[in-house]
Amino acid sequence: MSIGQSVPVLILKEGSTRSRGRDAQHNNIMAAKIIAQAVKSSLGPKGMDKMLVDSLGDVTITSDGRTILDEIEVEHPAAKMMVEVAKTQDDEVGDGTTTSVIVAGELLSKAEDKNVHPTVIIDGYRKAADKALEVLEKIAIPVDPTDKEALKKVAMTSMASKIVSENRKQLADIVVDAVLYIARKVGDEYRVDLDDIMVEKKPGESVT
Question: What is the pLDDT of residue 161?
Answer without folding.
Answer: 66
